[in-house]
Each structure stands twice: as C-alpha cells, then as structure tokens.
Amino acid sequence: MTGHSFSFSTSSADETRTLAQSLAPHLTGGDTLLLVGDVGAGKTHFARSLIQMLIGQTEDVPSPTFTLVQTYPCADAEIWHADLYRLTSTLEIEELGLVDAFDTEICLVEWPDRLGPLMPHHALTLTFASGAHEDARQITVSWTATRWTALLYQWNG
Q: Using an 8 Å Cβ cutoff, are 68 and 96 in contact?
C-alpha cells in the first residue's frame, strides 16, 4: 500500500483548535487517530478540541494521562481518548479494551508507539512538532488506508 501525507502549519493554539474542530465532523465509528509528538507538542490540545466539537459541548475534557482512557458518548459511536505514555506492555493495552474499540468507536491515541504490533493499519497518523514560536505547530498527517483519502481532501480543502 502506498502512503500519503500532507502538512499543516498553525501559528496559535486557536488555529490548532480550529483545525481539530474542522476534522471532527468527518469522523465515524471505526476511525482511529494516532497522535504522535513530544510532551507539550499539542496532542492533547488537538484531541480535547476535537472531542468537544464531537460531543457538542465545551465541557472539561481532561487528559487521560492517569486514567489511561477517557470515553465520551457521541451520536454514532463512543469516543475513546487514550494516553499510553505510562504503559509498558501490550497486555496492558489489551486489558483496556482499546483494540476492540478500534473497530467500532472513534479512537484518539496519544503515544501510539506503545501499541507495537497492536497498532491498527487503518489509522490516520497526526505528527505534532513545534513551530517557529511557542504556540506554532507543524502537523503532518499521514495514512495508507484508502478510506482517508477522500475525507482528507475534503478536510484539507
């Protein structure tokens, strides 16, 4: 399978939020986003903004750093926001039920490298890197599953 990618540059946290909010309406059950980047790169901010858009509320969306997974009801599927930073074994991931959720729920996974062989091949990867100043971000989007191609051209407009 051939991979595809493109990048966005955002100059503020508000621009990153708007980018996440514009992707949210295109997601359905079975979609998995792998959020890659260093601590403080903007993964949680992006996930929080996307979740708030999907649930239609600006309620507090905490980072799942300590709970490992936070779930939110949504119209067509649950949203699973996972932070795998503290995990050391794929057995821990299987116990969370995350692998099963990849098939039916909207999953946002921070630190997806911890998934190892459990990483879903149909996922969309968003890689976050710092930009030219403190709030600037470079976000590279990559995928191989054909499901994402049309959706991302709509999103990227």
A: yes
pTM beyond 0.70: the answer is yes
Cβ atoms < 10 Å from Cβ of 120? 20
Instruction: Write the pLDDT tens digit of every residue in 27-74.
Output: 999 999 999 999 888 899 999 999 999 998 777 776 766 678 989 888
Handedness of CA 14, 18, 19, 20 (dihedral sign): positive
CA distance 79 to 110: 14
155 alpha-carbon distance from chain centroid: 15
Cβ proximity of 20 and 46 under 8 Å: yes
